[in-house]
Amino acid sequence: MLAPDIDPADLKGKNVSAPVAFIGHLLMGVRLDSVGVTPDDVEWVNLNADEAAGYVYEPWSSSVQANLEGSSVATTSIEPMYLKNAMFADSIYTSKDFIADRRGAAVDMMRVDWDARAYWNQHVAKVNLIFSDYLQWPIEDIGWVVSSNGKEIVGGLYMYDFDEAARFCGVLDGAPPFDQANGGLVKTVADINERWIKLDLMETTVDVN
Asked: What are phi and psi of 181, to 5 degrees?
């Protein structure tokens, strides 16, 4: 989000805010690059919404717009260029030792996760009601976040099904969604690595092959 009278191209020397070492930090860095501003051109701080630019989640971004005249949304996580690079995603990570020494447990963990996703994809309305009851959220909010049919993307979150994930990992023929490349995960991880280096949170690249 941008404070009143702030243009993305005018952010050099201004204050910007994002949750450091988190998805928002990456998204802010990519956005700055897209307007010719490097991380060193800005001051990273905690700031109020009327000071310059910041990474804000809904429903707070809508609240800022409603209460701060002149504020604006510069970009969102469902812009095509962000969906294509798939940099802003949740993943399950384990150590190499866990996979090597407890492979059965690792496989079981992945199977349970994908079985749960498959069940949600096949029974979206039913599972969303469970989410709503557990979280004490209105059912409309559940659909807004994770979709009400399993395939739409509304609030910035998209749940891969098993085949889509396999294509993105390069182990199944076919194209993943959002114009992503088959096997694109390798480049995405490398891009994230380079981005963390650019943001001074890592020092070296890691071979993901």
From this structure: -85, 145
How far is Cα 21 from Cα 44, in angstroms, rounded to an integer? 12
Amino acid residing at 90: D
Helix (H, G, I), strand (E, B) or coil at 68: coil
Domains, the chain: 8-75 (3.40.190.10), 96-184 (no CATH)
Q: Starting at the edge strand that comes first in sequence, how are the strands of the sheet with 15-17 ordered? A: 43-44, 15-17, 53-54
- pLDDT in tens for each of the 209 residues of the chain? 888 888 888 889 988 888 878 888 888 888 899 889 998 999 888 655 455 788 888 778 888 888 888 888 888 888 888 889 888 877 788 899 999 999 999 999 999 999 999 999 999 999 999 999 999 999 998 998 888 998 888 877 888 999 999 999 999 999 999 999 999 999 999 999 999 999 888 888 877 66
